[in-house]
Amino acid sequence: MARSTAAVPQDEFDHPYVTVDLVTLTADDEGLHLLVLERDEEPLGWALPGAFVQMDEDVTETASRVAREKLGLQQVTDLIALRPFGTQGRDPRRRVITLPHLALRQAADSPSARALAPFAASWARIDTSADDGVVCTIEGTEVELVFDHEQIVREAVRELRRRVQLDDPMIYRRLLPDTFTLRHLQAVHEALIGQPVNRDSFRRRVLMSGRLDQTDERETDVDHRPANLYRWREHA
Fold first, then answer.
1. Is 220 helix (H, G, I), strand (E, B) or coil?
2. Are 191 and 28 in contact (CB under 8 A)?
3. How many C-beta atoms lie closer than 10 Å to residue 76's C-beta?
4. What SS3 class is residue 153?
5. What is the rounded CA–CA span in Å between residue 179 and residue 169?
């Protein structure tokens, strides 16, 4: 007998919920920084901002909505999709699969503590040098991320470093302003890879890459000899 192909009502099946969690990173002289939210409901603690995917939106639209509604960020583009996280029990409240996305922001264009205050959000400095996880500190105090968000952050940093190894220039374009010094570029590079590099060899390598143009401008408002400003070549 042929098997019936009649549609079965969807509500007869249990199904997981789908969310998008947003990993927002920036880089400066002090390393990598992550935007986190302080939760006011169980489980209490610090977490990545996230939201449930609505029936009428794409997951990238959900990520943009999270940035806008939970962080006050009006323009979040060039999102990088990370691998799904769906381990049973990752959310103690219900069965949830998350599709995390990575957003990179220039340090100078990132919201200040005052701007983040209404959203109960804060910048946390992250250290991924330990083998057993991510260390997050807010104003010098170590905090833990709830759910499996520490693993998601590690995955985001791993993806960043993979792209750096592949010499992806778009990573630096997203983290740097239109013009920048070689010192600034090196600081961002060191934050991404998590370790210092030799100044002379780094500068020699980037200048020989053919991707930078030296401008006629120098940095301003500094208490040392102003350095030359560079920009990326249009098709570099």
1. coil
2. yes
3. 20
4. helix
5. 15
pLDDT one-digit tens code per residue, 209-231: 999 999 999 988 777 888 999 99
What contacts 54, CB < 8 A, 6 or more positions away? 62
The arithmetic mean of pLDDT across residues 118-142, rounded, is 87
Report d(CA 79, CA 64) in Å as an integer: 9
**Which residues, at least 6 apart from 190, have a Cβ–Cβ distance to it below 8 Å?**
196, 197
Alpha carbons 127 and 136: distance in angstroms, whole number:
7
Strand partners, 17: 96
Q: Whole-prediction pTM value?
A: 0.88
Concatenated DSSP letters of 39-82: ESSSSPEEE--EEEPPTTS-HHHHHHHHHHHHH--S---S-EEP
Mean pLDDT of the 162-168 span:
91
pLDDT at 10 over 70: no
Residue 97 host element (H or E): strand 96-98
Residue 68 banded pLDDT, cuts 50, 70, 90: very high
Domains and CATH numbers, the chain: 16-164 (3.90.79.10), 178-232 (1.10.10.10)
SS3 assignment, position 154: helix
Query: Distance between CA 5 and CA 164 in Å, rounded?
Result: 49
